[in-house]
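Example complex used in Figure S2.
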Amino acid sequence: MDTTQLLKGVLDLAVLAVLKDEDGYGYDILRRLRAAGLDDVGDASVYGTLRRLFQAGCLTTYVVPSEEGPHRKYYGLNTTGRDQLQRSGKVWRTFASTMDTLLADGGMVA
Amino acid sequence: MNDVTDYVAQVRTALADLPPSARDELLDDLPEHLTEVAAEGEGPLAERLGPPAAYAAELRAAAGAPTVRRRWRTVEIRPRAAVGWVRARLQAIDTGTGPVIGYQRGSDFLRLLRPAWWVARGYLVALTVAELPAHDSIGLLPRVEAGNSTVAGAVLLVAFVIGSIWLGQREIRLPRRYRLGLGLGIALLVLPGIGNILQVDHDTQRRDWELAPTVVEATPPPMPMPTPSATG
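Predicted assembly (342 residues):
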C-alpha cells in the first residue's frame, strides 16, 4: 500500500504531534517526521501543511535570528493547535484500532 | 543563494494562477525555508527536491489551495494568469526537453548556441544591408552594389559578424527594456536577410524547373503529324 496516500490524510496530525513538546522551524520539523519513520514525507508537503495550519490559526510563529546561516522561522502550537491535536489524536486512535480489529478479524494479522 | 531565488521564482510561476494574496501567503517564507534546506545538504535544489513545478504541485495540494484544473476556466479571462500559465508550460517544455538531448534543461543547450546565433545574425544583417540599395543582385554572399564587389562584400560580412559578437557579449548586461528594443531592431534587420535566402532558394528551384522543358524541346518530336496545310 502506498504510504504517501495514507500520509495525505494524517500529515496535519503528524506535524502537530512533532510540535507538541518543542517548537521547530521548517526543515527541523521535516527531519523530526523522517526520524520518526515517515521517510516518504516531502518537503513541499510539510511546508504547505505548516502554512495551512498557520492560516487555520493552529500555530504561532516567531523568527529567531541566527549568526551563521539564515534567520529561522519557528512554529509552535497555540491553544487552538493543542485542542486540534487532542481531537484529531482521538479520532486517529479510534480509527487505527478499528482498522486493527478489522485486519485481525480478517486473519490478516498473525 | 542564487539557486534558492531561482527555485522560488519557478515555484511562484507555477502557482501564477492563484490569487496574488493567496500565493504570497503560501510563499511567504519559502525563501528562508529553502535556504535552510540548501544549507543542510549538497547539490542543487532541483535535484534534491525535484523540479519546481512538482514542488509547487505538492505544496498546492498540502496547503489545500485550488488545483490548476479547478481554476482552468478562469485562466482565459485573466491575462496575468494566462501569461503565468504559458510561462509554466514553457518551463515544463524546457525541463522536459533537456534530458532528451542530454542537458538538464533545454535552455542550457540553447545558451551554449548563443555565440553561433551572434555569428548567424551578423551574416543575415550583412545580407540585408548589402541588398538594401538594389534588389537585382540576390545571392547567398553579401555583395556591395558598386561593381558587384565580392571583396567589399566580404569585408562587410566580417565587420558585421564581429560587430554582432561584440554586441552579443554586451547586450546580456543591458536592462530588460533596452534588450527588448534591441531585439526588435535586430529582428527587423535579420528578417530581410532570411527573406533573401528564401528568395535564392525559390529561384534555384525555379531554374531547375525551367531547365526541364528546354531539354524536352531539344529532342525532335517523335512522330510528325500531317497537318491540313501540309497536304493542301
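Chain A has a mean pLDDT of 87. The beta strands of chain A are 24-25, 59-64, 72-77.
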